[in-house]
Amino acid sequence: MLRDVVALAYDGVGTFGLGVASEVFGFDRGSEGLPTYDFAVVTEHPGRVRTDTGLEVHVEHGLERAARADLVIALGWEHGDVDPPEAYGQVLRDAVARGARVMSQCTGAFVVAASGVADGRVLATHWRYADALARRYPAVRVDSDVLYVDDDPLFSSAGSAAGIDTCVHLLRREHGAAVAAAVARRLVVPPHREGGQAQFVEGPALPPDDGQRLRDVLVWASERLDEPLPVERLAARALQSPRSFARHFRVLTGTTPLAWLLAQRVALAQELLETTDLPVEEVARRCGFGAATTLRQHFTRRLGTSPQAYRRTFRGSGETALVGV
């Protein structure tokens, strides 16, 4: 179980990423029935550390504090053409060797790649730096299309804000959907964002009216997941043809209407399995899958476990997460 988290700080460390890690893992939400963590920021030489925006933070702990961490977070590294100090690489290698997890945020992927723990594995990073990461560390498979990568024990985010998505995803894996949703609600972010980085790469923007109509359709559909929602019905709601709707939907979300719907339905199934005693057949009906066999198929494909096994694992944590929600 995730209990101890450290974030690596070095000269030029990402300010936003440091804030994300501190907010998710350093803020005490125990009074709300949510998990708490022993969180620390560590650096090779304790003292003042300059961030990428010129701010200075005082870091009390040296790298030895990372020796007991369950999760080590490599924050943004602004020196993409220079390898980080070897001491940070050793921290990451030691973490993986003892069974801990490693997470990178944005250009923190360069720190992880330099350590060697990602050789033969997949890392995400910001689309602007993906090519540079792939050239510098050819043993790493770089994915520039997604918001984050779960290649357990490595987790990596595409950019600083996608670091929030990655953290919430890890909370979902560790504690269940209800805990992840509760923390996301506190952060005022969605528990899960569909799509990839393509939606953020510079390109033609949607007209304001079209974008708002599509957002309204997303809200409308998310409240009717138990109903049939073919693309024709969604397109009609957006006052568009199915072809235009599908094209605009991908521009807005980075994914297809079907993929988005499946993700929303699986997320709802997670919530119901954690927080209710409904039979799996009824969960399937309420989520729009119709039959339990269909729910099991999509649930297993997406999460790697069955609905029954998921309920056994997270039923308790789901009840706890409802306190104060």
Model description:
Helix 1 packs parallel to helix 5 (162-175) and helix 11 packs across helix 12 (292-303). The chain has 13 helices and eleven strands. Strand 10 (148-151) and strand 11 form a beta hairpin. The strands form three sheets. It has a seven-stranded mixed beta sheet, with helices on both faces. Strands 3-4 form a two-stranded antiparallel ribbon. The radius of gyration is 21 Å and the shape is globular. The protein has 325 residues and is an alpha/beta fold.
Topology overview:
Layout: E1 4-8, H1 15-26, E2 38-43, E3 47-50, E4 56-59, E5 61-62, E6 71-74, H2 86-97, E7 101-104, H3 108-115, E8 122-124, H4 130-136, E9 141-143, E10 148-151, E11 154-157, H5 162-175, H6 177-187, H7 208-222, H8 231-237, H9 242-253, H10 257-275, H11 280-286, H12 292-303, H13 307-321
Parallel strand pairs: 1-2, 1-6, 2-5, 6-7, 7-11, 8-9
Antiparallel strand pairs: 3-4, 10-11
